[in-house]
Amino acid sequence: MKREDIERLIGELNTLKCNSLKMVEEARIKYLGKKGEITALFEEFRNVDKDSKREFGKPLNELKQVAIAKIEELKAALDEAGAALEASEDLTMPGDELELGSRHPVSIVREEIVNIFRKFGYDVAEGPEIEDDHHVFEALNFPANHPARDMQDTFFISAGHLNPLLLRTHTSCVQVRAMETMPLPIRVVCPGRVFRNEAISARAHCIFHQIEGLYIDENVTFADLKQAILLFAREMFGPQTQIRMRPSYFPFTEPSAEVDVSCNICHGKGCNICKGTGWLEIMGCGMVDPNVLEASGIDSKKYSGFAFGMGLERIAMLKWQVNDLRHYFENDLRFLREFNTSLEV
Ligand code: DAH
Description:
The protein is built from eleven helices and nine strands. The protein is an alpha+beta fold. A hairpin with a 2-residue loop joins β6 (243-250) and β7 (253-262). α2 (21-32) packs antiparallel against α4 (50-88). The longest helix is centred in the first third of the chain and has 39 residues, at 50-88. The protein starts with a helix and ends in a 9-residue tail after the last helix. The mean pLDDT is 90. The structure holds 3,4-dihydroxyphenylalanine. Residues 170, 172, 212, 250, 253, 284-286, 307-309 line the site of 3,4-dihydroxyphenylalanine (DAH).
């Protein structure tokens, strides 16, 4: 029997660490079990001659006490940690469900339109919802007191001012900001929320969304406008889509047109969505009026351009045939959950 064996085991026990009750039990068996190392030393002790018994007896008993105390200590620590864990949480409980929202139909449509125009090389620009008279009307060729202003019922914030603040009634004001700040040529789409003082009904709302498009360069013609709109319509509504343009009036474009696409429900045969005409109106457009270019400091002799604007709710209505505008604003989960995936028409 050697002193070193006892000291080595005391050293081992002092640094012993267990992180499960199973490990503690294994350690108990290793040191104190029937075939354990300490038990073996006690066996050996029996054969030690009488004179040496004094030398080994005391340290051997101490070793056994150290082992018993250590095993108890480790067990207690793990029991305590286990109890704390059990009290704090039940690891067998099912996890919390992560509720994923769905995209709003207006967001889906906006993203689709923006992505189509991105492919055509357009940038995206945004402007403030609280605008001034200059950007919403004046710079777009609506002179003060011009009857064209009656087309859009405006929420004014500060009246009686030379350039009153108001909630923008269309996103065309963002084209003015683009012309003021962006280098030429400009190719930009401007999605955003707009406001009009309208009574809320299935067909009208005081808040809705538009996307505006603007292209300005040298030698831009009406043919370019037609081609851009046709390519857009085919990307958006399918490759068979036809477009037609009807003459119209907007103060900021000359000439101006209203664009219809062939009805993608009845393919021109006539249904209740297209009211039997085979055509669906989707946007207004035209060649940017030279007055509008000049108002933002662009030389109208050198540059020309086209612009267009459409309502996002209108496009969503055509895409999903949800024909009551109020659904888009009421946050009814039963409605919103219908749009869990982006539906392709
Ligand atoms: N701003 C028009 C509206 O709100 C839509 C529009 C028409 C925009 C013709 C345009 C355009 O850029 O060229 O009714």
